[in-house]
Amino acid sequence: MKTLPEVDFCGHRVSRLICGGNPFSGYSHVSAELDREMIEYYDMPKLQAALQECSRQGITAFQSRGDRHQMRMFLEYRQNGGTLQWIAQTASEFASMEANIAEIVRYKPIAVYHHGIQQQPCES
Known about the structure:
Blueprint: E1 6-9, E2 12-15, E3 19-20, H1 32-41, H2 44-56, E4 61-65, H3 68-79, E5 85-89, H4 97-105, E6 111-113
Parallel strand pairs: 3-4, 4-5, 5-6
Antiparallel strand pairs: 1-2
C-alpha cells in the first residue's frame, strides 16, 4: 500500500486526498445523461474495486451521502476487510435527519455532517 500525506481530522489520521461518493450514486452535477452513465457503470463489484484501489493508493478516507445505497456499499466493503474511514453526509430524502443520523452511526463513520438548510418556521 502506498502512503499519502495525512492530517489530523477530529483525532483521526486522514490522507489529504479522500475519495468522494458522488460518481458512485450518479451525481455528476453536469447532466442527467452523465448521471445515468455513472449509475449504469458503477455496479457493486466496480464500487468495491474502486474503494479497494483507493486504499491501495494510500487514500484513507471516503466521503459520501448517508443514503441506503452508500451505506450498503460501505457495509460490504467493510465486511470484506476494507479499512477506509467514512465521513458521512446526511441524506435529504430521509423524513427525519435524526433518524438518518441514527442509521448512519451504525456504520461507525469518523464524522457526520448536515448537508443543506434546515427549514425554520417563519416568524411574523
